[in-house]
Write a structure and sequence with these properties.
heterodimer, A: mainly alpha, Non-ribosomal Peptide Synthetase Peptidyl Carrier Protein, Chain A, 5 helices, disordered N terminus, disordered C terminus, B: 372 residues, alpha+beta, Butyryl-CoA Dehydrogenase, subunit A, domain 2, Butyryl-CoA Dehydrogenase, subunit A, domain 3, seven-stranded mixed sheet, 15% strand, ACP-like_sf (chain A), PP-bd_ACP (chain A), Acyl carrier protein (chain A)
Chain lengths: 98, 372
């Protein structure tokens, strides 16, 4: 199944995902966020908020983020999260049985 | 066979009730839970009821497992603590492990084997960044060295989930307690949950197959610990609801029957206030726990802060509520083993473990400033 079939909308493109993530983060943190910004270094995201972000990504994009994918670098920026999501959505195996 | 609908049933409660009976007082005084009780509950999947059916679990929702946890907590907080440890170990494997590790370990945890999770160290309590336990890759093995403290249920455990430093980050490793170099030393006379099998664990050059390392890569310590604690906090919170139910029931029963100055003491206004406060404590703790579980089941990001809130509210309410219950029952509850005496000691520990009340407050304060 392709990404387009699963979500049906423009959100499934890298640019669409990035845009949606930026708007979620800005809404939640009341701070300006750019796709390449280091969210941890700039203090936008704490480890508690990182957990929140993981639950959000799992629900919103119908993926399961587990095992080695939980590493902090995958959530360091909007760009990193976007590539993680595209990878997880690309391989149905990665959705797994978590 | 279980029914096709995966969730906890009235039969599961009855099964626990029949195994537990009137024994918790004796377990508290002896400081020991019978091994066969734990194995029977474990084999039925009840110690970690949220494990998916694909891995041999019951696949319970958080809400259903929460209610069940409260029920066990109302009977015996030591037994509930063992459930918390087992559930936290299972959740950690489920989140941090790869699919082969999930398949291997979750089957054990729903098959009668018992597990504990090791976070705290002599110099690393709330400040887990000070953790000194190391996990090293040596050829086809990983080697674990460290000293863990106050691991709940470790005295009964077959498997330990041990957190430590690994490469440039951290990792969790599954350690059989039978592995050479593992020494489990029971905590003598803990203040509360006396039969929960608290132990200190020494890991001295413990050599394990490389696939013991959950997920196989170094990760960030705060995220690892926060992931594991998410389940622990939720379970402790529901356990505190159970403590409050037991206290409210005992206090109401006593105050309705005990006569002083010619009438039941429940009719004395100062005693009635204790009963009202116990009821309020129980009800508010129940509502915040239900909310946290509903967030968990709905996959809502709010689950993270809702779980911390539930743990904080429920533990504080339980500690205060148990104090009120002792006051109402007075000498009737002033011996070890009594349900209210146990609650008084057990609830105090709940304000300390899985993120102290102060740590919870710091997290909630950070949240309050971030959502303004």
């Amino acid at each position: 199944m392709t990404i387009e079939q699963e979500t049906g909308e423009a959100v499934a493109t890298p640019a669409g995902i990035e845009e949606q993530l930026v708007s979620y983060l800005e809404e939640r943190t009341k701070a300006r966020v750019t796709p390449d910004q280091d969210l941890f270094r700039s203090g936008v995201v704490s480890s508690m908020f990182a957990m929140e972000l993981i639950v959000y990504l799992e629900k919103e994009y119908q993926v399961s983020i587990a095992g080695g994918d939980l590493k902090l670098d995958n959530f360091r920026s909007v760009a990193a999260m976007t590539s993680l999501l595209l990878r997880l959505r690309g391989s149905s195996d990665a959705v797994g049985d978590a | 066979m279980r029914s096709a609908m995966p969730d906890l049933t009235a039969e599961d409660r009855a099964f626990v009730d029949s195994l537990v009976g009137d024994q918790p007082a004796g377990w508290d005084v002896a400081g020991e839970l019978p091994d066969d009780v734990l194995r029977k509950l474990g084999t039925r999947g009840l110690l970690c009821a949220q494990v998916p059916t694909a891995h041999g679990g019951i696949g319970a929702s958080s809400r259903s497992n929460g209610e069940f946890t409260a029920h066990v907590g109302s009977l015996c907080s030591s037994l509930r603590s063992v459930m918390t440890s087992q559930g936290m170990a299972a959740w950690t494997v489920q989140k941090l492990g790869d699919s082969a590790q999930r398949a291997a370990h979750l089957r054990r945890l729903t098959g009668g084997q018992l597990a504990a999770v090791c976070f705290s160290e002599p110099a690393a309590g709330s400040d887990l960044a000070a953790m000194g336990t190391t996990i090293r890759r040596v050829g086809d093995s990983v080697v674990v060295d460290g000293h863990k403290k106050w691991a709940t249920a470790a005295a009964y455990a077959d498997l330990l989930v041990v957190f430590g430093r690994y490469e440039d980050g951290a990792a969790a490793v599954v350690v059989p307690t039978s592995a050479p170099g593992v020494r489990v030393e029971r905590v003598i006379d803990p203040l509360g949950c006396r039969a929960a099998g608290h132990a200190h664990v020494r890991l001295d050059d413990v050599r394990l197959p490389a696939d013991s390392l959950l997920g196989g890569v170094a990760q960030g310590l705060p995220l690892l610990v926060t992931t594991a604690l998410a389940y622990g906090r939720f379970s402790v919170a529901w356990g505190c609801v159970g403590i409050l139910r037991a206290c409210r029931t005992a206090a109401a029963e006593h105050a309705s029957t005990r006569q002083q100055f010619g009438r039941p003491i429940a009719e004395h206004q100062l005693v009635a206030r204790h009963l009202a406060e116990l009821y309020i404590a129980e009800q508010t703790a129940s509502r915040v726990c239900e909310h946290a579980s509903d967030c968990w089941d709905a996959g809502s990001p709010e689950v993270v802060v809702a779980t911390v809130l539930a743990k904080h509210v429920a533990a504080g309410n339980a500690a205060r509520g148990a104090g009120s219950a002792v006051q109402v029952l007075a000498s009737a509850a002033a011996t070890d083993g009594h349900v209210v005496a146990r609650a008084y000691r057990d609830a105090k520990l709940m304000e300390i473990i899985e993120g102290s009340s102060e740590i919870c407050q710091l997290i909630l304060a950070e949240h309050a400033t971030s959502v303004r």
